[in-house]
């Protein structure tokens, strides 16, 4: 027995040292996790920050570009950037445009045409930006795609879509959906004060935003009545009438 106690006394300190080290390791790991989470929160983008200006224009698939030559008008062309980010022009064939600004594309084309033309003075004009658009749907009079060459607010986009359908729209609960770095963000916007003539802080849209105007509960209830009551009443009446006539035969 004394030998066992002796062994336990010898093993005891070693055992507690191991547990203490384990606890210290856990605390260190927890601290690292907290630091990582704090860093992640600090670096996470705020999707609703308004910088006050439109982002710099860079070309992407779907954009429409016009190339005009000062001395060679027969080479003037209007082309659309293909899904692979390229355009095809006379004499120089395919040119990669994705990610370039109009000024950078101008310089690239000028250099490429130097081997083909004398004085290849040209101008690149952007006629349409495929991504510079938002989508407005729900209870508006003309839902669809809204293109905006300049900054546009939620209320302005709704006006471009024909305004609210005042019989069914719920302006106090407009939904704004935005995609940033592959993440979807949703924000509720109350535009009811605007209908009463009150000023509110403008909320500016970003490219490819989605604005959805929901319908009121009354409209939902009316639709339910139309679908499940009114639409069934003719069948019920017809069935009842048929049964009545059948029973009287």
Structure at a glance:
The chain has helices at 2-43, 102-113, 154-160, 192-195, 217-230, 233-247; strands spanning 64-69, 77-80, 86-89, 93-96, 122-128, 133-138, 144-147, 174-180, 183-189, 210-213.
* CATH 4th-level superfamily of the domain at 133-213: Outer membrane lipoprotein wza domain like
Order of helices and strands, N to C? HEEEEHEEEHEEHEHH
Number of helices, where a helix is a run of at least 4 consecutive DSSP H or I residues: 6
Distance between the termini: 107 Å
Mean pLDDT, to the nearest integer, reads: 78
Instruction: Write the CATH fold name of the domain at 133-213.
Output: Outer membrane lipoprotein wza fold like
How many individual β-strands? Answer: 10
Written description of the protein model:
The chain is 38% helix and 21% strand. It has 249 residues and is of the alpha+beta class. The longest helix is centred in the first third of the chain and has 42 residues, at 2-43. Among the domains are: 64-128, wza like domain (wza like fold, 2-Layer Sandwich), CATH 3.30.1950.10; 133-213, Roll (Outer membrane lipoprotein wza fold like). A 5-stranded mixed beta sheet has the order 7-6-10-8-9, covered by helices on one side. Strands 2-1-5 form a 3-stranded antiparallel beta sheet, with helices on one face. The chain has helices at 2-43, 102-113, 154-160, 192-195, 217-230, 233-247; strands at residues 64-69, 77-80, 86-89, 93-96, 122-128, 133-138, 144-147, 174-180, 183-189, 210-213.
């Amino acid at each position: 027995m004394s030998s066992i106690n002796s062994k336990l006394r010898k093993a005891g300190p070693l055992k507690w040292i191991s547990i203490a080290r384990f606890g210290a390791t856990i605390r260190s790991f927890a601290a690292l996790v907290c630091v990582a989470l704090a860093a992640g929160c600090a670096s996470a983008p705020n999707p609703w920050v308004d910088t006050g200006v439109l982002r710099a224009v860079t070309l992407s698939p779907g954009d429409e570009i016009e190339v005009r030559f000062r001395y060679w008008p027969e080479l003037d062309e209007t082309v659309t950037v293909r899904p692979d980010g390229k355009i095809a022009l006379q004499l120089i064939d395919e040119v990669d445009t994705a990610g370039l600004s109009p000024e950078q594309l101008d310089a690239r084309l000028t250099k490429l045409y130097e081997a083909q033309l004398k004085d290849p003075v040209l101008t690149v004009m952007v006629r349409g930006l495929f991504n510079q658009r938002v989508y407005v749907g729900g209870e508006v009079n003309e839902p669809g795609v809204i293109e905006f060459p300049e900054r546009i607010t939620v209320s302005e986009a709704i006006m471009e879509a024909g305004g609210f359908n005042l019989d069914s729209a719920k302006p106090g609960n407009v939904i704004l959906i935005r995609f940033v770095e592959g993440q979807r963000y949703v924000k509720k916007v109350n535009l009811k004060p605007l209908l009463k003539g009150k000023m509110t802080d403008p909320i500016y849209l970003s490219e490819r935003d989605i604005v959805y105007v929901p319908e009121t509960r009354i409209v939902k209830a009316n639709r339910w009545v139309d679908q499940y009551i009114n639409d069934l009443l003719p069948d019920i009446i017809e069935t009842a009438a048929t049964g009545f006539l059948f029973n009287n035969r």
